[in-house]
Amino acid sequence: MPSFNQSIFYPAVFFLTGIPGFETYHAWISIPFCCLYTTAISGNGMILFVIISESSLHEPMYYFLSMLSFMDLGLCLSTLVTMVGIFWFNAREISFDACIGQMFFIHGFTFMESSVLLAMAFDRFIAICNPLRYATILTNSRIIKVGFAVVIRGTVALVPLLLLLKHLSFCQSHVLHHSYCFHPDVMKLSCTDTKINSAFGLAIVISTAALDAILILLSYVLIIHAVLSIASPEHRKKAFGTCVSHISAVAIFYIPMISLSLVHRFGKNAPPLVHTLIANVYLLIPPVMNPIIYSVKTKQIRNTMLKIFLSKLI
Predict the structure, then answer these.
(1) Is 5 helix (H, G, I), strand (E, B) or coil?
(2) Which of 20, 87, 252, 305 could cross-link 272 (Cys pair, CB 3.0–4.6 Å)?
(3) Is 103 helix (H, G, I), strand (E, B) or coil?
(4) DSSP code per residue over 19-42
(5) pLDDT tens digits for 89-122?
(6) Which strand (E) or helix (H) includes residue 162?
(7) CA dist 12 → 9, 220, 242, 301 (Å)
(8) Is the pLDDT score of 2 beyond 60?
Protein backbone atom coordinates (compact mmCIF):
# COMPACT_ATOMS: atom_id res chain seq x y z
CA MET A 1 0.00 0.00 0.00
CA PRO A 2 1.47 3.42 -0.94
CA SER A 3 2.26 5.84 1.84
CA PHE A 4 0.41 9.13 2.32
CA ASN A 5 3.24 11.11 0.74
CA GLN A 6 3.33 8.87 -2.31
CA SER A 7 -0.41 9.22 -2.82
CA ILE A 8 0.01 13.01 -2.70
CA PHE A 9 3.01 13.35 -4.97
CA TYR A 10 2.13 10.67 -7.53
CA PRO A 11 -1.61 11.05 -8.19
CA ALA A 12 -3.56 7.96 -9.11
CA VAL A 13 -6.07 10.14 -10.96
CA PHE A 14 -6.73 13.58 -12.38
CA PHE A 15 -10.21 15.08 -12.61
CA LEU A 16 -11.36 16.41 -15.97
CA THR A 17 -13.74 19.35 -16.31
CA GLY A 18 -16.84 19.64 -18.47
CA ILE A 19 -18.45 23.07 -18.77
CA PRO A 20 -17.83 24.90 -15.47
CA GLY A 21 -21.02 26.23 -13.88
CA PHE A 22 -23.27 24.22 -16.17
CA GLU A 23 -22.75 20.72 -14.73
CA THR A 24 -26.49 20.13 -14.30
CA TYR A 25 -27.01 20.76 -18.03
CA HIS A 26 -24.28 18.46 -19.27
CA ALA A 27 -26.78 16.04 -20.80
CA TRP A 28 -28.25 18.83 -22.94
CA ILE A 29 -24.86 20.38 -23.71
CA SER A 30 -23.71 16.98 -24.97
CA ILE A 31 -26.14 17.24 -27.92
CA PRO A 32 -24.21 19.93 -29.86
CA PHE A 33 -20.93 18.23 -28.92
CA CYS A 34 -22.23 14.93 -30.31
CA CYS A 35 -23.28 16.71 -33.49
CA LEU A 36 -19.80 18.19 -33.86
CA TYR A 37 -18.11 14.84 -33.27
CA THR A 38 -20.48 13.12 -35.70
CA THR A 39 -19.84 15.78 -38.34
CA ALA A 40 -16.07 15.57 -37.88
CA ILE A 41 -15.86 11.77 -37.93
CA SER A 42 -18.31 11.26 -40.81
CA GLY A 43 -16.89 14.17 -42.84
CA ASN A 44 -13.27 13.12 -42.57
CA GLY A 45 -14.23 9.48 -43.05
CA MET A 46 -16.05 10.43 -46.25
CA ILE A 47 -13.04 12.41 -47.52
CA LEU A 48 -10.79 9.38 -46.92
CA PHE A 49 -13.26 7.01 -48.57
CA VAL A 50 -13.69 9.24 -51.63
CA ILE A 51 -9.94 9.70 -52.17
CA ILE A 52 -9.18 5.99 -51.69
CA SER A 53 -12.03 4.73 -53.89
CA GLU A 54 -11.75 7.25 -56.75
CA SER A 55 -8.69 6.65 -58.94
CA SER A 56 -8.90 10.14 -60.49
CA LEU A 57 -8.08 11.59 -57.06
CA HIS A 58 -4.86 9.61 -56.68
CA GLU A 59 -2.75 12.74 -56.99
CA PRO A 60 -0.33 14.46 -54.57
CA MET A 61 -2.80 17.18 -53.53
CA TYR A 62 -5.43 14.63 -52.53
CA TYR A 63 -2.93 12.31 -50.86
CA PHE A 64 -2.00 15.20 -48.58
CA LEU A 65 -5.69 15.94 -48.02
CA SER A 66 -6.23 12.32 -46.98
CA MET A 67 -3.37 12.70 -44.47
CA LEU A 68 -5.06 15.81 -43.09
CA SER A 69 -8.37 13.96 -42.72
CA PHE A 70 -6.62 11.05 -40.99
CA MET A 71 -5.01 13.44 -38.47
CA ASP A 72 -8.36 15.10 -37.80
CA LEU A 73 -9.98 11.70 -37.25
CA GLY A 74 -7.24 10.73 -34.82
CA LEU A 75 -7.62 14.00 -32.94
CA CYS A 76 -11.38 13.49 -32.54
CA LEU A 77 -11.13 9.86 -31.45
CA SER A 78 -8.40 10.74 -28.92
CA THR A 79 -10.90 12.70 -26.82
CA LEU A 80 -14.22 11.08 -27.69
CA VAL A 81 -14.23 8.65 -24.75
CA THR A 82 -13.44 11.23 -22.07
CA MET A 83 -15.88 13.73 -23.55
CA VAL A 84 -18.73 11.19 -23.58
CA GLY A 85 -17.78 10.01 -20.09
CA ILE A 86 -18.00 13.53 -18.65
CA PHE A 87 -21.21 14.67 -20.32
CA TRP A 88 -23.20 11.43 -20.11
CA PHE A 89 -21.91 9.61 -17.03
CA ASN A 90 -20.11 12.35 -15.02
CA ALA A 91 -16.99 10.13 -15.23
CA ARG A 92 -14.38 12.80 -14.60
CA GLU A 93 -11.56 10.64 -13.31
CA ILE A 94 -8.65 9.69 -15.53
CA SER A 95 -5.56 7.84 -14.36
CA PHE A 96 -2.15 9.48 -14.58
CA ASP A 97 -0.89 6.98 -17.18
CA ALA A 98 -4.09 7.26 -19.24
CA CYS A 99 -3.72 11.04 -19.12
CA ILE A 100 -0.17 10.81 -20.47
CA GLY A 101 -1.36 8.43 -23.20
CA GLN A 102 -4.13 10.83 -24.22
CA MET A 103 -1.67 13.74 -24.31
CA PHE A 104 0.60 11.72 -26.59
CA PHE A 105 -2.17 11.27 -29.16
CA ILE A 106 -3.61 14.79 -28.88
CA HIS A 107 -0.28 16.60 -29.19
CA GLY A 108 1.05 14.03 -31.65
CA PHE A 109 -1.86 14.43 -34.07
CA THR A 110 -1.68 18.22 -33.63
CA PHE A 111 2.00 18.38 -34.59
CA MET A 112 1.43 15.93 -37.45
CA GLU A 113 -1.42 18.08 -38.77
CA SER A 114 0.87 21.10 -38.70
CA SER A 115 3.43 19.15 -40.76
CA VAL A 116 0.76 18.06 -43.24
CA LEU A 117 -0.37 21.67 -43.70
CA LEU A 118 3.25 22.57 -44.47
CA ALA A 119 3.45 19.73 -47.01
CA MET A 120 0.22 20.99 -48.61
CA ALA A 121 1.71 24.49 -48.84
CA PHE A 122 4.76 23.03 -50.59
CA ASP A 123 2.39 21.17 -52.94
CA ARG A 124 0.64 24.44 -53.87
CA PHE A 125 4.02 26.19 -54.27
CA ILE A 126 5.27 23.57 -56.75
CA ALA A 127 1.93 23.45 -58.61
CA ILE A 128 1.88 27.22 -59.17
CA CYS A 129 5.56 28.18 -59.33
CA ASN A 130 6.94 25.14 -61.14
CA PRO A 131 4.00 23.30 -62.75
CA LEU A 132 6.06 21.56 -65.44
CA ARG A 133 8.09 19.66 -62.83
CA TYR A 134 5.15 18.99 -60.48
CA ALA A 135 4.75 15.32 -61.40
CA THR A 136 8.49 14.62 -61.28
CA ILE A 137 9.02 16.34 -57.91
CA LEU A 138 5.99 14.99 -56.04
CA THR A 139 6.21 11.31 -56.96
CA ASN A 140 4.37 8.60 -55.03
CA SER A 141 7.58 7.40 -53.36
CA ARG A 142 8.39 10.90 -52.14
CA ILE A 143 4.87 11.38 -50.81
CA ILE A 144 5.21 8.12 -48.85
CA LYS A 145 8.50 9.38 -47.41
CA VAL A 146 6.80 12.65 -46.47
CA GLY A 147 4.09 10.66 -44.69
CA PHE A 148 6.65 8.73 -42.65
CA ALA A 149 8.53 11.96 -41.86
CA VAL A 150 5.30 13.58 -40.65
CA VAL A 151 4.62 10.70 -38.23
CA ILE A 152 8.18 10.54 -36.91
CA ARG A 153 8.46 14.32 -36.51
CA GLY A 154 5.14 14.52 -34.69
CA THR A 155 5.79 11.74 -32.18
CA VAL A 156 9.49 11.26 -31.42
CA ALA A 157 9.97 14.54 -29.54
CA LEU A 158 6.82 13.95 -27.50
CA VAL A 159 8.16 10.84 -25.75
CA PRO A 160 10.82 12.60 -23.61
CA LEU A 161 8.46 15.55 -23.04
CA LEU A 162 5.78 13.30 -21.54
CA LEU A 163 8.27 11.17 -19.64
CA LEU A 164 9.47 14.34 -17.90
CA LEU A 165 5.99 14.63 -16.38
CA LYS A 166 6.67 11.39 -14.50
CA HIS A 167 9.33 13.20 -12.47
CA LEU A 168 7.02 16.00 -11.34
CA SER A 169 5.30 16.09 -7.97
CA PHE A 170 1.61 16.93 -7.77
CA CYS A 171 0.65 18.09 -4.30
CA GLN A 172 -1.95 20.70 -5.23
CA SER A 173 -5.33 20.35 -6.90
CA HIS A 174 -5.68 17.47 -9.36
CA VAL A 175 -8.52 19.17 -11.25
CA LEU A 176 -7.75 19.96 -14.90
CA HIS A 177 -9.38 22.84 -16.79
CA HIS A 178 -10.41 20.81 -19.84
CA SER A 179 -12.36 17.71 -20.77
CA TYR A 180 -9.11 16.12 -21.95
CA CYS A 181 -5.48 16.08 -20.83
CA PHE A 182 -3.41 18.96 -22.18
CA HIS A 183 0.31 19.24 -21.35
CA PRO A 184 0.41 22.87 -20.10
CA ASP A 185 -2.73 22.21 -18.04
CA VAL A 186 -1.22 19.15 -16.33
CA MET A 187 2.11 20.88 -15.80
CA LYS A 188 0.43 23.79 -13.96
CA LEU A 189 -0.76 21.41 -11.24
CA SER A 190 2.79 20.49 -10.27
CA CYS A 191 4.21 21.91 -7.03
CA THR A 192 7.83 21.38 -8.12
CA ASP A 193 10.07 23.26 -10.55
CA THR A 194 8.81 22.89 -14.13
CA LYS A 195 11.41 25.06 -15.90
CA ILE A 196 12.90 22.10 -17.78
CA ASN A 197 9.45 20.89 -18.84
CA SER A 198 8.43 24.37 -19.97
CA ALA A 199 11.67 24.95 -21.88
CA PHE A 200 11.52 21.57 -23.60
CA GLY A 201 7.83 22.01 -24.45
CA LEU A 202 8.51 25.47 -25.87
CA ALA A 203 11.40 24.11 -27.93
CA ILE A 204 9.13 21.43 -29.42
CA VAL A 205 6.41 23.97 -30.29
CA ILE A 206 8.96 26.31 -31.90
CA SER A 207 10.60 23.51 -33.91
CA THR A 208 7.26 22.13 -35.15
CA ALA A 209 4.16 24.31 -35.27
CA ALA A 210 5.93 27.69 -35.16
CA LEU A 211 8.52 26.70 -37.78
CA ASP A 212 5.78 25.23 -39.97
CA ALA A 213 3.78 28.48 -39.75
CA ILE A 214 6.81 30.53 -40.81
CA LEU A 215 7.53 28.22 -43.76
CA ILE A 216 3.85 28.23 -44.81
CA LEU A 217 3.89 32.04 -44.73
CA LEU A 218 7.10 32.10 -46.77
CA SER A 219 5.64 29.70 -49.34
CA TYR A 220 2.62 31.98 -49.81
CA VAL A 221 4.83 35.03 -50.22
CA LEU A 222 6.53 33.20 -53.10
CA ILE A 223 3.17 31.97 -54.45
CA ILE A 224 1.70 35.50 -54.43
CA HIS A 225 4.82 36.84 -56.18
CA ALA A 226 4.49 34.14 -58.85
CA VAL A 227 0.74 34.66 -59.32
CA LEU A 228 1.05 38.43 -59.66
CA SER A 229 3.52 37.91 -62.49
CA ILE A 230 0.85 36.07 -64.51
CA ALA A 231 -0.44 38.35 -67.24
CA SER A 232 -3.98 36.98 -67.54
CA PRO A 233 -6.39 38.10 -64.75
CA GLU A 234 -8.43 34.94 -65.30
CA HIS A 235 -5.38 32.71 -64.77
CA ARG A 236 -4.40 34.72 -61.69
CA LYS A 237 -7.85 34.20 -60.22
CA LYS A 238 -7.71 30.48 -61.00
CA ALA A 239 -4.27 30.15 -59.39
CA PHE A 240 -5.43 31.94 -56.23
CA GLY A 241 -8.57 29.80 -56.21
CA THR A 242 -6.55 26.62 -55.83
CA CYS A 243 -5.09 27.99 -52.58
CA VAL A 244 -8.31 29.15 -50.88
CA SER A 245 -9.09 25.80 -49.23
CA HIS A 246 -5.58 25.41 -47.86
CA ILE A 247 -5.43 28.99 -46.55
CA SER A 248 -8.76 28.40 -44.76
CA ALA A 249 -7.47 25.14 -43.25
CA VAL A 250 -4.30 26.89 -42.03
CA ALA A 251 -6.36 29.69 -40.44
CA ILE A 252 -8.78 27.41 -38.58
CA PHE A 253 -5.85 25.32 -37.32
CA TYR A 254 -3.48 28.04 -36.11
CA ILE A 255 -5.93 30.64 -34.75
CA PRO A 256 -7.46 28.32 -32.08
CA MET A 257 -4.01 26.90 -31.25
CA ILE A 258 -2.52 30.37 -30.72
CA SER A 259 -5.58 31.45 -28.71
CA LEU A 260 -5.31 28.43 -26.40
CA SER A 261 -1.57 28.97 -25.92
CA LEU A 262 -2.12 32.64 -25.03
CA VAL A 263 -4.86 31.77 -22.55
CA HIS A 264 -2.62 29.23 -20.82
CA ARG A 265 0.34 31.59 -20.70
CA PHE A 266 -1.33 34.91 -19.89
CA GLY A 267 -4.88 34.08 -18.82
CA LYS A 268 -4.25 32.86 -15.29
CA ASN A 269 -7.04 35.10 -13.99
CA ALA A 270 -9.45 34.27 -16.83
CA PRO A 271 -12.68 32.50 -15.84
CA PRO A 272 -12.53 28.67 -16.11
CA LEU A 273 -15.29 28.83 -18.73
CA VAL A 274 -12.95 30.75 -21.07
CA HIS A 275 -10.29 28.03 -20.79
CA THR A 276 -12.87 25.32 -21.48
CA LEU A 277 -14.50 26.99 -24.48
CA ILE A 278 -11.22 27.85 -26.22
CA ALA A 279 -9.91 24.33 -25.53
CA ASN A 280 -12.98 22.80 -27.18
CA VAL A 281 -12.76 25.19 -30.15
CA TYR A 282 -9.10 24.21 -30.59
CA LEU A 283 -10.02 20.53 -30.49
CA LEU A 284 -13.19 20.39 -32.60
CA ILE A 285 -13.32 23.27 -35.08
CA PRO A 286 -10.49 22.12 -37.43
CA PRO A 287 -11.78 18.51 -37.75
CA VAL A 288 -15.33 19.78 -38.31
CA MET A 289 -14.49 22.56 -40.76
CA ASN A 290 -11.78 20.95 -42.92
CA PRO A 291 -14.11 18.42 -44.65
CA ILE A 292 -16.70 21.16 -45.20
CA ILE A 293 -14.13 23.55 -46.67
CA TYR A 294 -12.64 20.99 -49.03
CA SER A 295 -16.04 19.61 -50.03
CA VAL A 296 -17.35 23.07 -50.91
CA LYS A 297 -14.21 24.60 -52.42
CA THR A 298 -12.72 21.59 -54.22
CA LYS A 299 -14.73 20.73 -57.30
CA GLN A 300 -13.26 17.24 -57.75
CA ILE A 301 -14.05 16.21 -54.16
CA ARG A 302 -17.56 17.67 -54.36
CA ASN A 303 -18.39 16.01 -57.68
CA THR A 304 -17.03 12.64 -56.57
CA MET A 305 -19.06 12.79 -53.35
CA LEU A 306 -22.20 13.58 -55.32
CA LYS A 307 -21.48 10.77 -57.78
CA ILE A 308 -21.01 8.20 -54.98
CA PHE A 309 -24.10 9.45 -53.14
CA LEU A 310 -26.29 9.30 -56.25
CA SER A 311 -25.02 5.86 -57.21
CA LYS A 312 -25.85 4.54 -53.74
CA LEU A 313 -29.25 6.22 -53.85
CA ILE A 314 -30.09 4.73 -57.24
Answers:
(1) helix
(2) 20
(3) helix
(4) STT-GGGHHHHHHHHHHHHHHHHH
(5) 999 999 999 999 999 999 999 999 999 999 999 9
(6) helix 158-165
(7) 9, 48, 50, 47
(8) no
